[in-house]
Amino acid sequence: MEPYDAPKSEQPAATPSHQSEGGTLERLLVSAFYWFIHGVVTMVLLLVFVLVVPRFLHLFEEFGVDLPAMTVAVVTLSRGSVKFWFLFVFAFLFIDTSIAIAVSFLPRRLQWVTRLWFWGYLLLAILLLLITGISLAIPYMNLMTNLSTIIW
DSSP letters of 52-96? Predict the structure, then answer.
C-alpha cells in the first residue's frame, strides 16, 4: 500500500434513497392504499351507473318525462355500463393495478406522478358523479313539480 492511499473499505456503496428497501416498501404501501381507494371509487361508479340510473330512467319513462340532452348522455353511459360492466372491472384490475405498482418504483423526483394518478382519477370520478346527479335531478324536479300541480 502506498503511503498516501486511503484504505479500501469492503462495504458496498450506499444505494440512493429511492432504491432502498424501506423507501420502496413505503411507496408500495402508499400505492396499495391509493389502489384500494380507486377500487372503492370504481365500485361506487359501477353501482350508480348499473343500479341507480336505470331506476331513475324507469321512473322517467313511466311518467313520460322529456329528458334533457345531459340526462340522455348519462343514460347512454349507464346503458353502456350495464352492457360492458366487466370492462370496468378489467380496467381496474389490470390497468390500474399495473399503474399502482409502476408508480411505487419511481424515483423521488417523479413522485408527483403518483399524486397525479391518484387525484386525477378521484377528481374525474367526483366530476362524473356530480354531472350524473345534476342530470338526474333536473328531470326529477320537473316531474315532482308536475305531479304536485296534478294532485292539487
Answer: IHHHHHHHHHHHTPPPPHHHHHHHHHHHHHHHTHHHHHHIIIIII
List the chain pLDDT tens, one digit each, 152 residues: 555 555 555 555 544 544 555 577 888 888 889 889 989 999 999 999 999 999 999 999 998 889 999 999 999 999 999 999 899 889 888 998 888 888 888 888 888 888 898 999 999 999 999 999 999 999 999 889 888 776 66
Map out the domains of the chain as residue ranges. 22-151
**Is 85:46 a contact under the CB 8 Å cutoff?**
yes
Q: Which letter does DSSP use for residue 10 in this model?
A: -
Q: Give the residue carrying C-alpha cell 411505487.
A: 104
Q: Which pTM was predicted?
A: 0.75
